[in-house]
Every structure is written in structure tokens, then in C-alpha cells.
Amino acid sequence: MSTPATTIFSPATAARFDRLVTLYPVKRSALVPMLLYAQDEVGYISDAVVAEIAQRVGIADHDVRSVLSYYSMLRTKPAGKYNVQVCTNISCMLRNGFGILEHCKKRLGIGHKETTPDGLFSLEEVECIGACCWAPAIQVNYDFYDDLTTEKMDQILEDYKAGRGKETV
Amino acid sequence: MADVTFTVDGKKLTAPAGTLLIDACKAAGIEIPAFCYYPKLSVQAACRMCVVRIEKMPKLQTACTTPVTEGMVVATETDEVKQARKATIELLLGNHPLDCPVCDAGGECELQDMTFKYGAAESKYVEIKQHREEQQWSPVVYFDRPRCILCYRCVTVCGPGMDVWALAIENRGVHAVIAPNEQDHLNCEECGMCIDLCPVGALTSGTYRYKTRPWEMNHVATVCTHCGDGCKTTLGVRSVNDGVEIIRGDNRDKSGMNGDFLCNKGRYAFDFANRTDRLTKPLIRQPDGKFAEVNWDHALDFAGKKLHEIREAKGGQSIGVIGSNRTTNEEAYLLQKFARTVLGTNNIDHHRTADYVSFAAALKGKAAHTASLRDTATAPAILLLGNNPTDQHPALAWNLRSNVRLNRARIYIANHSEIKLRRQAKAFLEIPQDGYASLVQYLAGNDGAIAANDSTAAFRDAIRKEESLVIVFGSEYRGRDIQALVDFGLSLPNTKFAALGDYANSRGAADMGLLPDLLPGYVPVGDAAHFTEEYGAAMPPTAGLDLLQMFDAAQRGDLSALYIVGSNPVSRYGVDPASLKNTFLVVQDMFMTETAALADVIFPAANLYEKSGTVTNTFGDIQLAKKAADKAGVRTDFELIVRLADRMGSDPKRLVPFGRGVYADMGQSRGAQSGEADRHAVWLAANHLEPKLSPFDPFATLDEIQRLVPSYNVSRLELLAGMDQQEKLDLVQIQPTASRRDLVLPAEDTLFTSGTLGRYSDMLKAIVESRTTPNPAETAAD
Q1: pLDDT tens-digit readout, B172-208
Q2: How far is CA B615 from its chain centroid?
Q3: B130 band by pLDDT with thresholds 50, 70 and 90
Q4: pTM for the full predicted model
Q5: What's domain B357-499's superfamily in CATH?
Q6: A65 and B172: CB-CB below 8 Å?
Q7: Which of B202, B397, B466, B490 could form a disulfide with B381 if both were Cys (CB 3.0 to 4.6 A apart)?
């Protein structure tokens, strides 16, 4: 129900959270943005994140989990360093989005919502990412790649493996 | 808000603007089915059952979220609507097992009713149903996942309703599931509201599940015997070999002051009545110190003769009487009449849990200043001083929470601990445990009474600004403190008061004169004129011994006999058993309590669920208790007192004014047994009397109470119809004189205890154990 004495977040995020809960008529409304920011910082929603956010918003841990489990973009396990998100919604599907997804699965040796043993890549099939004009498209963390072919996809994965990939944010 | 006029199924209806269509239709007798909607809980719009066709709107609309507007034209049962509802049910039945014949909810299941109504028996879905094993979440809550239709009612009643937040939906879509807060079990108040509201058989009760079917029970709505709130609990009863057993307690009859609410005690803690170790035969202590079972005739004769002897030899002042907090008003009244006119003593008392005497004295002659339990659900502002209603008065706590949620009521709380209700409070003031009296002085304007600061000043200012206030206070206030509090309250424009005490009829016990110095209606024993006239017998004119003095007298050897009805003072007050060894002790109780174990004669007694009469809750709301259960071998305290008087050579007709006047019990008080040949009727037939003339008719005694106690002269008609009637405390003829000895000993009950009775409830014990014993899964493997 209040700002905790100790926080697991960075001072910047903690300050942001302090402000977030004051922006809405009810504190609860700050829950989803807080979870997203927390995921960006921590990498996933850990038990400690749930506990602190519950305290900040003034609701039960259980209630936070209820919201958390609703949204597929919120994860409770760490993802790889590069989270490859392949869109398979209608435009991408028509332009071989599933082919790209299958290709990634084969290349990385992992399935949907799985992570490679070295922790470098994780793979996710996602709903529309708003890049329909240049389908098929994927997102690696917050960076977009579009108008893809399996060859281009190989190149992107190679670049990230070699540390040459885009890393915005 | 202004009224609007609209048309539903061709009928012109009027309702205040903003009323939800579903409620407006219900009020006009038009049923719109809904699973997720529950009145007074937050709107979900999840189930799509309440869809209706509204003209000029493009699609079917949900009636539970649509406010009525001027000129709206609605059709609730067109083919289109029926088809939509049928499709919804078909989807709900996609995974719902069709095991109605073994399901607990079968026969009172809303999904079953709707399937029947809309004929969705055939399904286009041929996929195999997903099955999940049922789970036990607590001793009382079981969850059967496939039956759940995800209506959210349990989630909303547990969250906003109870402020417990133990249930939530996890995951999404087909994976969505109701989950308890501790992964595989619940950590909650065990109120069972989720079970009550569940429209299907997904949440079932540990006491009732798989025991019977709803139509095999009789349902009797009576008053709960546990705390002082006076909730109605509907007891589902069934005939068994030795009487009528209670199988279920729930809130099926929602006519009580508790509205939708019932706590775990009202719901599960009836099981003491079914225990096999109940006393069912009269017992007399033999010369060897052991109890022997005897027949009723012998036991009554023995006790009656012995009491008669003692009265004749040593006088009434050597006899004491202790009454109960759980007997009816009529029984309490009869007991004091028996003590004063037959035994000839004023040595009569009971375990006091609140200072109702001082409360009555403080409000003498001041009409319309007592708050009913109902007032706490509607009052715009409430000041709660002391007590912890969440534990001790769950219905009051529910009312306060609902009042804040639905009416934006302002609750002000001062307490010495951080009680849970502070979460709903507009202002919460933590005060020292001994600071209640000085708080009132401070509120009344004495700045130096407490360590004042800005928050105390704001607290005081806010209260003083209230134009209408209900002050609810706990047993922290006694004697002069109550007077001071009432004086302060009356300085505000419009104030009502309520004193909080424990147990079903503590208020009634005090009102009915189970006090050494006061007759029924708080009339001083020295001023008994109209009582003497009515009773036709002289009564001792001076105050008798109070409860503690009686035990002191026994210790000194000055108390030759003690008659204890439905009370366990030996345990409650830690009485030394040796002090009673020279006292002839007659005990009426359900169980072999610490007190009963010391008795010379024990009469097995019926409990509040096995008798009829009236009870008064701590707010002064008088209600009818109906007979629900029955146990072979036991008798009501009422009957026992009459029989004992008879055996002492007294005329029962003097004690119970039966056959006088036109009032009579024509069977309306006998609940489930109405129309059956009960003991009452058998006695009458044997005595060649008309059915309305019985010495065991509590309503004859109620006649007398209403004649002699003006504050109880409430509408008999409403009372018999099951309505609560507020006692008129202003008519009490008490003299606000001498300071009385403070004998208040609050029960300090939690949610899972009930005085010395709670331990006889296996379900309450199981709940307490489940909370103290660690879950095996959580125990370390080593």
C-alpha cells in the first residue's frame, strides 16, 4: 500500500513507479505498465517483482499473478538475451510467416517460448506486431526486421550470434 | 435520480434513471437469466446470458450493464435472444460434466435450470471433455474445476465483498481457472460466501457435500446461535432415527438482516447439535460420585424435591440461578420468574459480555436513538469505537464494507489495534488500550484529554461535521463511560447508538432480567409493583447476589443450591470445583461441560436450533427463532423450567399464562415440524386440552413479556412473519442511579471460536487445525 523501504529496482525505475501509482484514480491502474517496466529491467517477472509491485499497488500477490498470467507478453521465466518474436498473424501468415517460424525453430533447435541452452536466443510466436505492410516481420527484443526470407533470417541470427545485431534500448 | 419510462416485452415500466435493466426487470417480475451478475457486486458482463434485444441498438445487449433510459424498448425472450442464450449454454457445457445426478448443486443449479429452459441438451461439440480432479482448498471449501463456468461471482464476493481477495482468475481463455491464494489451498476467513454464490456445483461445502439432495431436506430460516449479530441462517434438516438432524447451514433465505451475508459459524458451526456425545438422558450423581442415567420423572422429582426442601429450610436467599446467553427471551424471562416467584430469590445472573444496563440507563426516555443492524448498512456515517467486528461481529463488518462500497459511507474508527476494517475507514485513529474514555472526552471538546495532534483534530472535526451518525461501541465502554459517550453523541444533530456484546441472546438475557438487581425491562427489584400484580406472588424486594458473589457465597458455604441453565461459568470464570462441593447443583446443558461435571442433577437440554421463541441481537433487533432440528431425549429449557416448577409444587399456570387472552401458538413457531404430532401436541391430547393451551407455549410467555416490558411491545405480526423488530429502548424504566459493579467479561471470540460452545463444533476445530498445522507439502522433507 506504500512505497517500500527497500526496493529491488534501480533508482530510476523505483522513482518512475513512485510516480506511476499517483497518476490514476485508483492505484491498481498502474499495475500493467509497472509489470512491463519491471520486465524490461529484470528480464522477467520474478516472485520478488510480484511481491514488490503488489505492495506498491496495495493489492494481494495473488491478484498480481492473476493479471500477470492473463498477458502473454509478460513472462515468469527469464528469456534469452535475444528474444526472437515471429509474427504469424494474417499478413505475415500469407507471406510465409509460419515458414519463418519453422525455420527459426530448426535453426535454433528450440520451440515456442523456449530458450537455447547458451541463453542467447529465445523464440516466441506472437500476434500482430503492426508491420503488416512489410510482412513477414519479426522483432528481436525491440528491433524490427521485415520483408523476410529464410536466407535473411539466417543472416539476422548469425549477426546476433556474432554480436553484430541491432540493440536499441 | 429522476424516473424514466421504458417498455419491456410490451409492458410499460418506470424506474429511476441509471438503474440497470436487469434490476429494473426483476423488480417488475420479468426474469432475465444471468450467471455472472449478482446484485450489489461489481458488474462483470462475462457470461452473456442476460442478452436482450433493445430497439435501435445494433446487436444484442447485456442487460446487466445497460442502464435504463427514457423510451427504451426491450424484448427479453424473442427467438433471437433464446437462440443466443442457447448457444451460450452450449459453449458453457463444452467442458461441463453432465453429472447432475451426483453433483451437489443438482436441483438448485442455475446452469441446470437454464439448460432445461433453453433446451441446450444437444450439442454440436463432440470433443472429449477436459477432466480435472477436484481439489480441497480448506476444510470447508472444495473446488471441482470442470464444473466451473468462470462467472467470477466467487472472485467478486471474496474481493470487494469480503475484502479477503483469496480467489482470482489465473490464465486466459480456455486455460482460465479460479485459483486460491496459496496455490493449492486457501488462506482466508472461511466464510463460504463463494460456495453460496456459486451458480453451479464448482465450489462445494465440506460439511454438506454428497450428503443429500436439496429437495430431500426441509429448510428452516432461523437465527444463528453464535455471535450477537442475529443473522438468519437457513438450516437444511432431515429426519433421522433420533430426531431431526441439521445437514446444512446456508443463506438460502435472504430475508434476514444479514442480507446476502453469512459467516463460517452460521454456515458450518451448527454441527455441535448433531454430535453423538450430547447429553440425551437425565443424570443424577450417585453416592459413589458417579453419574447414573435415570428417567425424566425421577430426575425432575429428585431435583424439584431437593430445591423445595432447601427453599423451605433455608429460604430463597440460599439458592442461586445462572442463566444463559443462548436461550430465547421467553426462556430467560421464565427463568427469572421461576427464580423470583418459585425459588424466592434475586440471586440470578448471567455471563455479561456488554454493559447493556448502563446503555439502557443512558438512553432512557430518548426515542429513536438506537441503531439496528440494518442501520449500519445504510447510515451515511459510522463511528466505530473499540471491538473488532471482522472477528467478533462479521455481519456488522460486512454491512460496513458494503455501505462504503455501495453508498460511499464514511467510517471513522478508533481502536487500540490495527483492525482490518481500517482499510475501509475514512479515518483511523490508533489509541492506547485504556484510552477509550479519554477519547470521548476529547471528542466532546476537552483538548487535554489525549495527546492531540493534527490527525486527532481532523478526526474530531470530521465527526462533529456529520449530520447523521451511528456510533457503534465495543465492551471497552462500560458504566459511566457509556453515559459520557451517549452524552457526547446526543450533542450531535442526529445520532444513533449500538452496543456490541457477544452471543445470540446476551442482550435478551439482560433485557429479560437475568440480573440480581433488575427485573425484565431493567425495572429495579425494589419497584416491582406491576410485576407482583401480574405474577400474583410476592418477590424478594432487595437485590440478590451477582454471579461472582454467588460463587463466593458457595465457597463460604452460604449457597445451598445453584441452578445453572445453558452456561459454563466454571470454565469461563475459572471457578474452583471444590467451592461447589456443598452446593446442590442442577445443570441444564447439551454437553458434559466443566460445570455440568460438578452437578448433582443434569438435564439434557435443547439448543437454539431445536426450539422456538424470540431472541434479541446486540443491536436490540428482536427476531423469531424457529424450531429446525430435534434430538430425541432432550427438552427445551422452557419445558424444563416449567416442569421443575411443577415438581416443586408450584402451579404451571401461574408461571406460564397459557390460555389467557386470544394469542396462541397455532403451529407457526414449529418450523419444519409444523403439522406433525410433536411433543407439544401429545401433551395437550393427554391432558384433554385444546391445541392452543400449552404450558410449554413460549408465545404465552411472550404475551406476558409484551404486557410487562414496554420496550418489547413490538409488532407480533411482523415478528411471526420473520421480520426483525427493533426494541424500544427509550421505554425502559431504569433508574440511572448507583454505579453498578462492572461484571462485563467479553468473549473475545475470533472468527473460529464461539465462547465455550465452539469447541463442540468439529468443523470449527478442523478450520483452526488447518490453519495451525503446516500443510504436509510445505514441511521440509528431512
Answers
A1: 988 999 999 998 999 999 999 999 999 999 999 999 9
A2: 10
A3: confident
A4: 0.91
A5: Dimethylsulfoxide Reductase, domain 2 (3.40.228.10)
A6: no
A7: B466
